[in-house]
Amino acid sequence: MKKLSLYILIFSILFAVFLIGPAFLSKQFAAYPLMKIGDVLDIFTPLILIPLYWLLFRVDINKAPSLKENLIFMLFVAFWVIGQGMHLAANSIGHLLKGMEGSDIYNLTHFYDEVLSHYLWHFGIVGLSALIISRQWRNPFTEGRAVSWLTYLAAIIHGFTLFILFVEGGTALLGVPFVVLVIQLILYRWWRRLIHQPLLEFFFISCLVAAVLFMVWGIMWGGLPEFSEVGIID
């Protein structure tokens, strides 16, 4: 269980780095100036995060996932990778279309970058999270306690990242119901199982953190506008 808590912390940190980091690395990539450094970092996003998802998905190495679970995992990974790859390419190309607003190529690139890719990618994120929660629920540990400062720290980081992801990604219609559903399920059905289920605890606290931030942001702005829409980021 201690090793799993460490995996959870590593996952939450790298999830934040790879999903938030590229937006702040806007300098041109010296080896190929048409790309930004953030684009280069984003290439490695699925190569790093998908294996970490797999480590969390296994939960217990002594209880192998079923064929059905593996197929569902691969399906959500496909959504994740298609959306992330589409976003990477369209976002990178979009940087070169300044002054072309209103043209067909700009509108199509914007649709791929800001709409379709976000929903495909974030659906994959939500789906993998739900699958990991489901597998942990059905495979609780029988010894030890899930309570760990590593898990709490990881959950706070991940909850903050989910808030940023769904707000700036414009996918609050997907993210908010997911967060609320996870909180309700764990509170009303799985609360007593948290003691032996660190992944349930991780996602429960993450969703609580995200829900509080959604609430505060919604009260401040009368809705959930993207950070770029209110001038916080470019």
Q: How would you describe the overall organization of this protein?
A:
The structure is a single chain. The chain has 8 helices and no strands. The chain has one domain (2-221). The radius of gyration is 19 Å and the shape is globular. By secondary structure, the chain is an all-alpha fold.
Q: Given the C-alpha coordinates, what overall shape results? A: globular
DSSP, total strands: 0
What Rg is obtained from the alpha carbons, in whole angstroms?
Answer: 19 Å
Question: Runs with pLDDT <50, length 5+?
Answer: none
Strand content: under 5%
Helix content: over 70%
Structural class: mainly alpha
Integer tally of domains: 1
The ordered H/E elements are HHHHHHHH
Distance between the termini: 42 Å
Mean pLDDT: 91
Tally of alpha and pi helices: 8
Tell me about the largest β-sheet. Answer: none
Provide key terms for this protein:
234 residues; mainly alpha; 8 helices
Q: Summarize this, please?
A:
The chain has 234 residues and is mainly alpha-helical.
Write the SSE topology.
Blueprint (H helix, E strand, L loop, with lengths): L1 H19 L16 H7 L1 H14 L8 H28 L9 H35 L10 H20 L3 H19 L7 H24 L13
Helix pairs in contact: 1-3, 1-6, 3-4, 3-5, 4-5, 5-7, 5-8, 6-7, 6-8, 7-8
